[in-house]
Automatic annotation (TrEMBL):
Protein name per the record: IS200/IS605 family transposase
Provenance organism: Anaerobutyricum soehngenii
Gene expressing this chain: tnpA
InterPro entries cross-referenced by the UniProt entry: Transposase_17 (IPR002686), Transposase_17_sf (IPR036515)
All residue ranges annotated as the Transposase IS200-like domain in the record: 12-133
Pfam families attached to this UniProt entry: Y1_Tnp (PF01797)
Length: 134
């Protein structure tokens, strides 16, 4: 049996996306416990929504992650969920620190994001790249 593909009902697929999120104003906030909490929260979100985090790493002002997802999911929705839930969590836990960084409450990530679908051939290369961030 070919384990490279996910199967669900009558679907057979292997969808992976490399996503990069950048902090608002490129503030270098992703260090120490905040970086660890962001990574853990993204893992928790992935588990809750049925995504699989293949690799994840942060570097001062941005985070990279390689994610496997279902055919019924949209990348823009995945990014929206990750941004909303991590922002809410970080403001709840680090509100006093973040309020000194951002004049407008409840922001953490910049408006945009980078997303790139990957083929199976380059998966290991991207995973190694992400793991070597930071």
């Amino acid at each position: 049996m070919d384990n490279r593909y996910n199967r669900h009902n009558r679907r057979k697929y292997n969808l992976k996306v490399h996503i990069v999120l950048v902090t608002k104003y490129r503030k270098q906030l992703l260090k120490d416990s905040i970086a660890d909490d962001v990574k853990q929260k993204i893992f928790d979100i992935a588990n809750a929504y049925g995504y699989e985090i293949i690799a994840i790493e942060t570097d001062k002002d941005h985070t990279h992650f390689l994610l496997s997802y279902d055919t019924t999911d949209k990348v823009c929705d995945i990014v929206k969920i990750v941004k909303q839930e991590t922002t809410y969590y970080l403001w709840h836990k680090y509100g006093s620190l973040l309020s000194k960084q951002y004049w407008k409450k409840k922001i953490f990530w910049s408006d945009g994001y980078f997303a790139c679908s990957i083929g199976e051939v380059s998966s290991a290369t991207i995973q190694k790249y992400i793991e070597n961030q930071g």
